[in-house]
Design goal:
- It is a single chain.
- The chain is of the alpha/beta class.
- The protein has one domain: Rossmann fold.
- Helix content is about 25%, strand content about 35%.
- It has 5 helices and 9 strands, in the order H-E-E-H-H-E-H-E-E-E-E-H-E-E.
- The protein has a 7-stranded mixed β-sheet, sandwiched between helices.
- Strand 5 (about 95-100) and strand 6 (about 105-110) form a beta hairpin.
- The longest helix is centred in the middle third of the chain and has 13 residues, at about 65-75.
- Bound molecules: adenosine monophosphate.
Amino acid sequence: MPNVTAAEITAAIRNVPDFPKPGIQFKDITPVLADARLFAGAIDLLTENFKPGSVDAVVGIDARGFIFAAAAAVKLKAGFVPVRKKGKLPHTTHEQDYALEYGHATVAMHIDALKPGARVLLIDDLLATGGTSSAAVALVKKLGAEILEASFLIELKFLDGREKLKGFPVRSIVVY
Ligand code: AMP
């Protein structure tokens, strides 16, 4: 059982208005990371549904997702697999485009990052429109792996991101 509540994590998240551009309410999770108890509690909450050994890989999304996914992987005795922004991974990759408010972006994963049938927990810090995480889901599926759950520390519910994530449970710890 996590000994940290979602309310304590909510209290630590810093809202930064108009970052990185006007109109965005940026949810800054660095105060959660800087507090040893809250960081460990966040990992406990994100991995609550899984025992060590029940997940083969935790897939984390560039860049803040890496922090939570890597810690979750160690706790679950699973591997860690990064989904990175295009152009950063050194070996051959699969790439997936997704729409942004203006324009588009591309994420990538190594072609041998997951074995077919691998049991995957997908983790990111924040679910907004769901564009990034649904692109990550497409990459995981391309390798024939199975997503057991997508777990987010924060969900911006008014953006309906979970509508893009179908076929597995979607959890978030703090909802705005
Ligand atoms: P989306 O693809 O719209 O679901 O956006 C999710 C990604 O963008 C996550 O990797 C977040 O780290 C980042 N992100 C989007 N909106 C915010 C926000 N308001 N505060 C902090 N990070 C955000």
